[in-house]
Design goal:
The chain is an all-alpha fold and 60 residues long. It has one domain (1-60). It has helices at residues 22-31, 48-57.
């Protein structure tokens, strides 16, 4: 069975519908066995650097 990769995810920085806090995201992904994720926030890139840094560390 192929691994699941979540490629549509809005973080707390998304202007229209963000709800996912980055501090909680990466530990949760790891607990579910997910190795990939994509950030698709609306209207800005405010969280891009924080998203990248936390993803590299693999934790919130």
């Amino acid at each position: 069975m192929a691994e699941f990769a979540h490629l549509h995810l809005h973080t707390q920085y998304s202007l229209l519908d963000g709800a996912i806090r980055l501090d909680e995201l990466f530990p949760r992904l790891l607990s579910l066995g997910m190795k990939q994720v994509a950030m698709t926030d609306h209207g800005n890139l405010f969280g891009a650097l924080q998203f990248y840094e936390k993803a590299k560390r693999g934790k919130g």
